[in-house]
Amino acid sequence: MSNLMTGAEMVVRALQDQGVDTIFGYPGGAVLPIYDALFHQDQIKHVLVRHEQGAAHAAEGYARSSGKVGVLLVTSGPGATNTITGLTDALMDSIPLICITGQVPTHLIGSDAFQECDTVGITRHCTKHNYLVRQVEDLARILHEAFYVAQNGRPGPVVIDIPKDVQFALGAYLLPDRIEHKTYKPKLDGDADKIAQAVAMMATARRPIFYTGGGVVNSGLEASSLLRELAGLTGFPVTSTLMGLGAFPASDKQWIGMLGMHGTFEANNAMHDCDLMIAVGARFDDRITGRLDAFSPGSKKIHIDIDPSSINKNVKIDLGIVGDCSHVLRQLVDAYRAQGKQPDAGALARWWAQIDKWRARRSLSFKASDTVIKPQYAVQRLYELTKSRDVYITTEVGQHQMWAAQHYHFDEPNRWMTSGGLGTMGYGLPAAIGAQMAHPQALVIDIAGEASILMNIQEMSTALQYRLPVKIFILNNEYMGMVRQWQELLHGGRYSESYSEALPDFVKLAEAYGAHGIRCSDPADLDAAIMEMIDIPRPVIFDCIVDKTENCLPMIPSGKAHNEMIMPDEDADMGTMIDAPGKMLV
Amino acid sequence: MNAPSAPSAPLSPYSSALGKSNIEVHTLSVLVDNEPGVLARVVGLFSGRGYNIESLTVAEVAHAEHLSRITIVTSGTPEAIEQIGHQLERLVPIHKVTDLTLRGGAVERELAMIKVAGKGACRDEALRLADAFRARVIDASIESFVFELTGNVGKIDQFIDLMRPIGLVEVARTGVAAISRGPNPI
């Protein structure tokens, strides 16, 4: 086969050679040659979304649930600008994406041509890297290089902007194995002396904790299994960020729940009181640390991260280990075994006894009701009725997201897709579509809110077109619930613009799209309704009418420390709990 | 150039507990691929993350290898400057970031062109001072000079201050270029 081909053919060929089987996109004038090249092949399946933001989140859901790179293809101008939220989301959550954008022909660049925008200029701040391909001779190298950059080091989105004349031009194709990157070579193994120091610190710890994050999931299945091995060897408690859920099994007795603003009492107090914190692939985000000058004041901190800029960024670290989680965890497991010492068993037992006391506070409890569905109860029932299945969960952003994180439990990585860093409402439905494309036989559920779901509801058409039986489980409280909760907390209960007026009838909306609609408002009917949702082999919108004013607790109020949580049994005077500096925060 | 952030800004409970020590000025040398947009990536990083740029110079230094060298003078706490280095290293087309101040023993120079206008005694005084500073006259008219002066930042600042009462018209400065002492590259 000749290696001379058009730029458009080269794009498709490179995707094939990179092992891409699914892409998400929307055609337009500046990418027609690439769509024509797609037409002539059947190796890559193209999923036509209804909005380019949907393509980006679908590619994210595909990537996160499969461990592969997500790919999207959009046109110039508005096609490119509509992807910005998704690209930023992927940058914040370290999701490997390739976004191919069409561009006006090179001789028109800079002339304010129809559907022209400065795509590389606009996306420079929301991508890991981006390229404008000015000549077809560079195209094959850039395509393969982009896959390398997206996946290696800390993963992230990469944009390749291809002018239309470059898509038509003839050039020589290069195979991926002939590409080597000249500058970008991330460090994978931790320094041996630092591994030795870490193991020595672990062997003498009295109140240790593993604080793990999305980096463990991104590093691959082996990292999760090594984390389990290291936790088993040491007997240390494990907590995780929102992004890391599933890397360590929630059913394990060493699991103490998620930490952070809506984390468990035991996880946050253990973080506060520990004497050794081992952060693995986590980045000390403000949702995690709470008040920084009161963050875990008495602990030594080890931080394992592939991104050197994450170490010492927000919190002073005693021992920073730059490397890939799976490599460093392997080194730690081997070194810990080899040195043969165990931490003081008595001290560790006392630490666990303390953690069990915190656990006994039952911080995720809520007042049950038999007249109204409590949102936590809805997620608990959803979990109980689906946990034995091959299930993938996505969420939108808000209270429902936190309730899902608290009450749906994961034993495996890559099963939980949520917008953590950017907090993008509208993420869940397209992400569910992406996850379902990657796992056609699985049960994929978007746990949603009635406000978030409307932000990308148009993707219902995509789900129908490709017969993707995604389930949208809406916790409908008729409020932008987290906004309402913060208004109760910070603004005297003045619910400015947070009530969802003029909501659609979600059952009829489902039917209008050709999907199935279910509504449930009585706790007694909930199990049967959830079973109906699971059994229908089509997309379903489940309108779960829940308690309108339930607050998401426990909570570290803004500006407070880990040991100053609002507990579910003390939310009566929430409006007085945050001081003036705290009110300034987000 | 960014103004240094206001010291009176209230410290948020989320603002880094690391940011409490003194502000230092550092010179960073950044070796980059000379490709379109690379300067925008560097400058955008500084503006996007709220870092300061005191001066910035850039030019190609190895044509065949497509390498450019960017010299950035920045200010911040030692922790912030360490962050700046790591953030720069994350940019894909960057080969190497060196903190010349941390490394010690670097030579720093800046070139300035200074236009001074005046008549009579002013002209004599300007020429005398220029001679003392080893500034060269690179343009002259009946009522003006343009001086070229190379040196460290302080020397140039001092010369400009002296020219001000004599008839300073305008100044063009290149910003600092810097290189380490001794036989080895950075």
From TrEMBL, chain A:
Enzyme Commission no: 2.2.1.6
Pathway: Amino-acid biosynthesis; L-isoleucine biosynthesis; L-isoleucine from 2-oxobutanoate: step 1/4; Amino-acid biosynthesis; L-valine biosynthesis; L-valine from pyruvate: step 1/4
Keyword Transferase appears in the UniProt entry: yes
Occurrences of domain Thiamine pyrophosphate enzyme central (ranges): 195-332
A Gene Ontology biological process term: L-valine biosynthetic process
Cofactor dependency: thiamine diphosphate; Mg(2+)
CC per GO annotation: acetolactate synthase complex
Keyword hit for GTP-binding: no
EC supergroup of this enzyme: transferase
Domain named Thiamine pyrophosphate enzyme N-terminal TPP-binding: residues: 5-121
Family annotation (InterPro entries): Acetolactate_synth_lsu, AHAS_TPP, DHS-like_NAD/FAD-binding_dom, THDP-binding, Thiamin_PyroP_enz_cen_dom, Thiamin_PyroP_enz_TPP-bd_dom, TPP_enz, TPP_enzyme_TPP-bd
CDD domains: TPP_AHAS, TPP_PYR_POX_like
Pfam families membership: TPP_enzyme_C, TPP_enzyme_M, TPP_enzyme_N
Reactions the enzyme catalyzes: 2 pyruvate + H(+) = (2S)-2-acetolactate + CO2
Keywords: Amino-acid biosynthesis, Branched-chain amino acid biosynthesis, FAD, Flavoprotein, Magnesium, Metal-binding, Thiamine pyrophosphate, Transferase
Cofactor binding description: Binds 1 thiamine pyrophosphate per subunit.
Chain ranges of the Thiamine pyrophosphate enzyme TPP-binding domain: 397-544
GO MF terms, alphabetically ordered: acetolactate synthase activity; flavin adenine dinucleotide binding; magnesium ion binding; thiamine pyrophosphate binding
Family: Belongs to the TPP enzyme family.
Protein name: Acetolactate synthase
UniProtKB/TrEMBL annotation, chain B:
Database matches in PANTHER family: ACETOLACTATE SYNTHASE SMALL SUBUNIT (PTHR30239), ACETOLACTATE SYNTHASE SMALL SUBUNIT 1, CHLOROPLASTIC (PTHR30239:SF0)
Domain ACT span(s) in chain numbering: 27-102
Sequence similarity: Belongs to the acetolactate synthase small subunit family.
Record's catalysed reaction(s): 2 pyruvate + H(+) = (2S)-2-acetolactate + CO2
Pathway: Amino-acid biosynthesis; L-valine biosynthesis; L-valine from pyruvate: step 1/4; Amino-acid biosynthesis; L-isoleucine biosynthesis; L-isoleucine from 2-oxobutanoate: step 1/4
Assigned EC number: 2.2.1.6
CC per GO annotation: cytosol
Record-linked SUPFAM superfamilies: ACT-like
Enzyme class: transferase
Protein name per Swiss-Prot or TrEMBL: Acetolactate synthase small subunit
Pfam families per the UniProt record, alphabetical: ACT_AHAS_ss, ALS_ss_C
Reported function: Catalyzes the conversion of 2 pyruvate molecules into acetolactate in the first common step of the biosynthetic pathway of the branched-amino acids such as leucine, isoleucine, and valine.
Keywords of this entry: Amino-acid biosynthesis, Branched-chain amino acid biosynthesis, Transferase
Assembly behavior: Dimer of large and small chains.
Gene Ontology biological-process entries: isoleucine biosynthetic process; L-valine biosynthetic process
Gene Ontology terms for molecular function: acetolactate synthase activity; acetolactate synthase regulator activity
InterPro entries according to UniProt: Acetalactate_synth_ssu, Acetolactate_synth/TF_NikR_C, Acetolactate_synth_ssu_C, ACT-like_dom_sf, ACT_dom, AHAS_ACT, AHAS_small-like_ACT
